[in-house]
Design a protein that fits this description.
With 382 residues, the protein is an alpha/beta fold. It contains 12 helices and 14 strands. Strands 4, 5, 8, 9, 10, 11, 12, 13 and 14 form a 9-stranded mixed sheet that branches. Strands 1-2-3 form a 3-stranded mixed sheet, with helices on one face. Strand 6 and strand 7 form a beta hairpin. Helix 4 packs across helix 12, helix 6 packs parallel to helix 7 and helix 8 packs parallel to helix 9.
């Protein structure tokens, strides 16, 4: 015996509320995407769904999830879905809703006093030290621990994060709000997603600043636990813009053991003195090569990471720890090219273990008490 129509309709609405938009990660019912959901006398449910944009690349995913959720309701014999597109007014309403009702000038959520997102800017003095590889593997390792993680590929000229994280999709847009694609549990945005093919980006300072500002304010990141920024090498325009836009960002310096590379890395970390940002630590990459006989070959020398950590500690007057040393492993390069970070593809590899250990240290951080009420009262004099 079938359930009463009213009961089925309520169950169908409840089932639809369990379906999340794949990009926004919120129920489609909360986002105003379900225009109608009717149960026919034959038990077939007809759903009218509003997509945020025409040609939505995740249409099939929505169809699959809705069919599975609604089809599981007792008394439902079939599910038919009709897609339409939101009007400009509906998209603006959605945009305002996602921004908490603030439809005016976009703000950078991570720079607000109440933000609980930990922001790590991964910096290096020079290119070729594996900064991007470290960034994507830390992001993947943190996401694997259940944290909500985002990555901004702020290396505008040398963007490589999408490939290394396995991101193939393009961002979609709701009015002037950008929905970042995801891969391996990480949300990602990069200028490479907006250029044709492998075209070079030829911009000066103001354009770089504006791009970083849009990545921070116009992209809908949701509630992130951790945001990592893969900075370009050196102490140029992007590093300066970051200090202006995200003064609370913490700097993570990547170097190799080579003395020449370490000296340059010190300069990248030293910018924290001028910007008043915190140095969270140093990562030494390509520390050694494990040989078949169990010995190690120090191809780039040794001691560079410790030297940078000690020098920066003296410079800022506080401990800047050496967070870890990552051995050379061809699988880091191979998995990066394949879009599957080594911490996920080969978690038992020595390089993966070292990266995971660094991620553990970044995932647990003592919160500052600055600006927080402590609930203390002065004692009364007797």
């Amino acid at each position: 015996m079938s359930a009463p129509a009213g009961t089925i309709h309520e169950a169908v609405r409840a089932a639809l509320a369990t379906v999340n938009d794949p990009e926004i990660r919120r129920p489609i019912t909360d986002l105003g995407m379900v225009r109608a959901a009717e149960v026919g006398p034959d038990g077939v449910v007809r759903v009218e769904l509003l997509l945020t944009v025409a040609g939505c690349p995740l249409r099939d995913k929505l169809r699959e999830d809705i069919t599975a959720a609604v089809g599981a309701v007792s008394g439902v014999t079939g599910v038919e879905i009709e897609f339409d597109v939101m009007s400009p007014e509906q998209r603006r309403a959605l945009q305002a809703s996602l921004r908490g009702g603030a439809a005016a000038e976009p703000v950078i959520p991570f720079a607000q006093p109440g933000s609980r997102t930990r922001v790590y800017a991964v910096a290096s003095g020079k290119g070729g030290v594996g900064k991007s590889s470290v960034t994507v593997n830390l992001a993947a390792a943190l996401a694997a621990r259940g944290l909500a993680v985002g990555v901004i590929d702020a290396d505008i000229y040398g963007h490589s994060v999408p490939r290394m994280l396995g991101v193939s999709g393009r961002p979609t847009q709701v009015e002037d709000m950008i929905m970042p694609p995801q891969a391996n549990g990480v949300k990602v945005i990069s200028i490479g997603m907006f250029t044709a093919g492998n075209a070079a980006v030829v911009w000066r300072g103001p354009m770089l600043h504006r791009a970083l500002q849009q990545f921070l304010a116009d992209v809908y990141w949701g509630d992130l636990d951790v945001l990592l920024l893969d900075l370009p090498p050196g102490t140029g325009d992007v590093a300066i813009s970051l200090a202006q836009l995200l003064p609370n960002a913490e700097i993570l310096v990547v170097t190799t053991p080579q003395v020449a590379a370490a000296e340059v890395a010190e300069r990248a970390g030293g910018i924290a003195l001028q910007t008043h940002q915190r140095l969270v630590g140093v990562v030494e990459n390509m520390s050694w090569l494990d040989l078949p006989d169990g010995s190690r070959m120090e191809i780039f020398g040794s001691g560079g990471g410790a030297m940078v950590a000690e020098s920066l500690s003296r410079l800022v007057g506080a401990e800047v720890p050496l967070l870890g040393q990552i051995p050379l492993d061809t699988r880091v390069r191979e998995t990066g090219d394949a879009g599957k970070p080594i911490v996920l593809d080969s978690p038992t590899a020595p390089a993966a273990k070292a990266l995971s250990a660094i991620a553990d240290r970044l995932a647990v951080r003592r919160e500052s008490l600055l600006g927080k009420p402590l609930g203390l009262r002065p004692a009364r004099s007797r």
